[in-house]
Each structure stands twice: as structure tokens, then as C-alpha cells.
Write a structure and sequence with these properties.
462 residues; 7-stranded antiparallel sheet
Length: 462
């Protein structure tokens, strides 16, 4: 994914007052519904295995890392069913108790190229959520590639075969990561705005990534100079821009749903740390916006992050509890969709007209924010359709040390509609990234939107 934050599983629902189970009640082996996990809980800590029809193998994560995902447990509908989650109100993973870890899960084994192919194939067959929308025949085409895999196939050739197959899904939440990233890399197929940037790079005979960085600088400069006219704020580790785009028209731009804290080498800031960094910024901005006629909430270049951050932002704009969306995992039999409800925020908030701006760059938690905001009666969705990649990323280490990421969850709005692959369509079209003027079109589009929202009495007299 071209998400700024990789591997962030984030979702936060309305907490409910289920009694907490004691730690000792959870000792034993548990199989998840969906997700393909086998979780072993002992007094010494947690262990995780991955299970598919093609076999079982251990996850390299430490007990401390697993506690970040499964550190809270709540009783299920029976004694042998339990929910594990990262914290109160976050994504709930339902597990069933097993008598023991299945045979072979801890048996040392050197996996052949053909066995690795079968693990990848089974992982997608059992968990990938979006074949109907993205590529209904993908598994059949992958099966046709199996004859190319030989027992002695080298890693580079196998990685290339996997990467070519995955790339055809055109899913921002599908990745393949090798331990030696210098020699084996996976590049997703560009789409939409990123295709235009690639064409610009070719025309200028410059590296594509260099052109993308220059475009991003122009995007930020356009906001600060053209939209906010040199009087804006660029804060929260340079991930938030805000100010007034016109008289009584507030402007708030979120580039990510995380990354608000500068992380230390080898350590990713936690969700509480991210929220602690963002909340004072939202307090200051929304306090300044008190009495504004409207607020433009711009996520047209938002690369994703934590769903919990997305909901914390959305709650600043609702006056009443609102069902925002629901989600469920592929293969999670008997598990009802998890419903996420926005609750009115006690910190500074804004309940007037809100115009949320998106583009095809808006992805993942940026789309979740948009999905949640669209449930509010005071919000109008402006821009172009979002990327269409909502699901959390299911991280699956392969037995040879590679890691594959895939989207295994379904997200639906309050009316039950899903927007995976097609993206959320705007209620009011506004082309923010035009190919003929990629460097300045966003700032000009936002400037025009802001000026159109100024009431006549607030406009300067000629």
C-alpha cells in the first residue's frame, strides 16, 4: 500500500459493557473465525500460528507484540467461545477453544517452492474479501501458474511469479514483502492520479518517485499559500494543515490517520500516543472554527492509518449518536457484523455544514473517515471517488520469511452498501487533481470551493 503507516490494524467500535474474563480462563489453544489464526495462551504469554488448508506454521511475533492485538479478552456466547481484542471498543476477533494445537504446527519443516505456492493460494482462497469486485477469475488464473513452479525454483523467480499475480488484483491493501527488500521488491500497479504522475515523470525524464515527492511538496505549498494565504498552521509532525480558507470558512486537511508523532528508530507510536498528539490540534482548530459558516475537511491526499483516529475525527462533527458503518471478516461464520457508532464529542466540535473532499488518492482509513462522515446530515461529500480499499490489512507471514498482506474484511455504510474497489462516489463532483495542471489544480479547486461557500454578507465590498 502507499499508506504512510504499514501494518496498522485499527478499528474502534462503541464499547459495550461485557464482563471481562479472567486471564486463567483463556489458557489453552484458540482458533479464530476468519483470519486463519491459532492463538495459544499460557501463563508465560501468547503464541500465534497461521492455519490454512495447505498447512500450519508459526508466526515470528513476540508475546509482547501479540498482546498489542489480543491483550483484552471478553466472554463469548458460550464457555468455549471468546473474543480477543487490542483494547476496549477495538476490532473484535472471535475464537473457539481447541483441545490442542493441531499436529504439525510446530514441527520443523523446510517448505518447498510448490508448498509455498499452495500456502499463498490457500491464504487468498480462504480470506481475500474482494474477488467478485476485483477479479472473479483470479484463483483460476493463479492455479494455471502452478505448473511453472518447480521444487528447486529459486526465490527470485518465485517472488516474481507471486508479485505478478498479486499485482493484477489492483488492491492497495495487497502487498508482498521479502526479508531482503534490496533484491526482492513488490511495486503495486499505479492507478488514476498516480498514473498521471508516472506519465509526467516520463515526459520530464525523471524518476517517478522524485516527481511524486515534488508533487507532494506542491500540494502542501498550495494549501499554505493559495488556500490559507500564508496564515495557516502545519502541525502534528507535518500531517495536519488548518486555518481559514475564506471569511468564516474553516479548512482542515489531514494527510494521514496517524503519524502525528515522530517515531523512534524501530518503534512505531501506539494508538494512544497518536491520539494524544492529534487531539490538542483538533481542539485548537475547532475552537478557532467556532462561529464559522462552514468547514472544509480535506482528505484528498490522505494515505490511511488508524480507523480509530478516523472515528475520533468524525465524532468532532456529530451532535447525536449515529451509526457510521459496520464490518465483518471473510469466513467468520456465525459472527455478526461489528457496528461502529459515532458518539458526540465532549472536546471542541463543529456541527455546522461540513464539506469533506476526497480523490482517488484517498484510501484506507481516509475512506473510513469519509464513510463515517457521510452518515451525518450536516456533511456533503465533495471531490472524486475514493480508492476503494477499506479493509484492515491482514498480515500473513509465509513459512519462508516473506510476508503477504491482503484485505479480508467487508465494510458497509449504515444502509448496508459496500464500496470496495469502486470507492465512495462524491455527492458533489469536484476534480481536484487535473492532469493538465497536476501541481496547482488542487489548491485552485479548494480555493474556488471555499469562495463559493462564503455568504454574500461576508464577502468584501468591491
Amino acid at each position: 500500500m502507499l499508506l504512510v503507516l504499514a501494518g496498522l490494524l485499527a478499528a474502534c467500535a462503541t464499547p459495550h459493557a461485557a464482563p471481562k474474563a479472567s486471564a486463567s480462563d483463556a489458557y489453552g489453544v484458540w482458533r479464530s473465525r476468519g483470519y486463519g489464526w491459532l492463538l495459544t495462551v499460557t501463563p508465560e504469554g501468547l503464541r500465534l500460528h497461521h492455519e490454512t488448508a495447505a498447512g500450519c506454521h508459526p508466526d515470528p511475533a513476540s508475546s509482547a507484540e501479540l498482546v498489542e492485538m489480543f491483550g483484552v479478552q471478553e466472554p463469548g456466547p458460550s464457555a468455549d467461545v471468546r473474543d480477543f481484542l487490542a483494547g476496549p471498543g477495538e476490532t473484535r476477533y472471535r475464537f473457539d477453544r481447541l483441545a490442542a494445537l493441531p499436529a504439525g504446527c510446530d514441527t520443523p519443516h523446510v517448505w518447498s517452492a510448490l508448498e509455498l505456492f499452495d500456502v499463498l493460494r490457500a491464504t487468498f482462497a480462504e480470506h481475500y474479501a474482494s474477488f467478485p469486485q476485483r477479479d472473479p477469475d483470479w484463483l483460476a488464473r493463479l492455479d494455471a501458474q502452478r505448473s511453472r513452479v518447480t521444487p528447486g525454483m529459486d526465490g527470485r523467480a518465485l517472488f516474481t511469479l507471486f508479485a505478478d499475480a498479486l499485482r493484477s488484483l489492483n488492491d492497495a491493501h495487497v502487498e508482498l514483502v521479502a526479508g531482503d527488500a534490496d533484491t526482492l521488491t513488490y511495486e503495486p500497479r499505479p492507478t488514476g492520479t498516480f498514473v498521471m504522475l508516472e506519465h509526467a515523470a516520463v515526459a520530464m525524464a525523471r524518476p517517478a518517485r522524485e516527481v511524486q515527492r515534488e508533487w507532494m511538496r506542491a500540494y502542501r505549498d498550495g494549501i499554505l499559500q493559495t488556500v490559507l494565504r500564508g496564515e495557516g498552521h502545519h502541525v502534528a509532525n507535518q500531517r495536519v494543515l488548518w486555518g481559514f480558507a475564506a471569511p468564516r470558512i474553516g479548512y482542515l486537511n489531514l494527510l494521514t490517520m496517524g503519524g502525528f508523532v515522530a517515531g523512534e528508530e524501530g518503534r512505531t507510536p501506539t494508538l494512544p500516543q497518536e491520539l494524544a498528539a492529534l487531539e490538542p490540534v483538533l481542539d485548537e482548530a475547532l475552537t478557532a472554527f467556532a462561529g464559522a459558516d462552514a468547514v472544509i475537511l480535506d482528505v484528498s491526499n490522505n494515505r490511511g492509518g488508524y480507523d480509530a483516529v478516523a472515528r475520533a475525527v468524525a465524532e468532532r462533527f456529530t451532535a447525536h449518536p449515529r451509526r457510521a458503518y459496520s464490518k465483518w471478516a471473510t469466513g467468520a461464520k456465525g459472527v455478526p457484523p461489528q457496528v461502529f457508532t459515532l458518539q458526540p464529542s465532549s472536546p471542541p466540535s463543529f456541527h455546522g455544514p461540513v464539506y469533506v473532499v476526497t480523490s482517488d488518492v484517498t484510501v484506507s482509513a481516509g475512506e473510513v473517515l469519509t464513510l463515517a462522515l457521510r452518515a451525518l446530515p450536516n456533511v456533503v461529500h465533495v471531490g472524486t471517488a475514493t480508492r476503494g480499499a477499506f479493509s484492515d490489512m491482514l498480515v500473513k507471514p509465509l513459512p519462508n520469511g516473506w510476508t503477504v498482506h491482503l484485505s479480508n474484511e467487508h465494510y458497509a455504510d449504515a444502509q448496508g452498501q459496500e464500496y470496495e474497489a469502486r470507492g465512495l462516489p462524491p455527492q458533489r463532483p469536484l476534480d481536484v487533481f487535473k492532469g493538465e495542471d497536476m501541481w496547482h489544480s488542487h489548491a485552485r479547486a479548494i480555493r474556488a470551493l471555499a469562495d463559493s461557500l462564503v455568504p454574500p454578507e461576508a464577502k468584501p465590498t468591491p
